[in-house]
Amino acid sequence: MDPRALDRLSAGADLAISALTSLRSHTTKGADEDGEYVRTWVFDPGDPRSWAVATWRPGSADNGIQQVGDRPVCDEVVQAYAQWVARGESSRRQFGITVTPEGQRIWLDDPERVLGSAGS
Q1: Neighbouring-strand partners of residue 53
Q2: Contact at 8 Å (CB) between 116 and 39?
Q3: What is the distance between the alpha carbons of residues 106 and 82, in angstroms, rounded to a whole number?
Q4: How far apart are CA 15 and CA 32, in angstroms?
Q5: Residue 63 in contact with residue 71, Cβ under 8 Å?
Q6: How do the domains of the chain map onto residue ranges?
Q7: What are the DSSP calls for the chain, one per residue?
Q8: Which of 52, 80, 90, 110 is deepest in the core (most CB within 10 A)?
Q9: Nearest-CA neighbor of 25 among 100, 82, 77?
């Protein structure tokens, strides 16, 4: 997984991945003693022990992913991305959210087509 890919995702892909996995991501760009890099962190806000980080360096063949914890967060992101592609790469305009006293549901195209939910 190229960490630059998560930073370049469309809003629809980002919404789908977040709804399907409840994971969050953050990409940073910078430089250190080894040169320039792009680094993407993927984490479970409910479980600080489960996270992954992918680092890309220009010209390096040794770009890698480190995954920590019981939850395979990186694998889940890849699977959710594949689901988004298989469903036709929906745009952000196709998503909706329903909020009730019981919680919230994120849906695609129709309120009955729920992708993810969270309780209050």
Answers
A1: 41, 66
A2: no
A3: 18
A4: 31
A5: no
A6: 3-90
A7: --HHHHHT--HHHHHHHHHHH--EEEEEEEEETTEEEEEEEEEETTEEEEEEEEEE-TT-S--EEEEESSS-HHHHHHHHHHHHHHTT---GGGEEEEEETTEEEEEESSTTSEEEEEE-
A8: 52
A9: 77
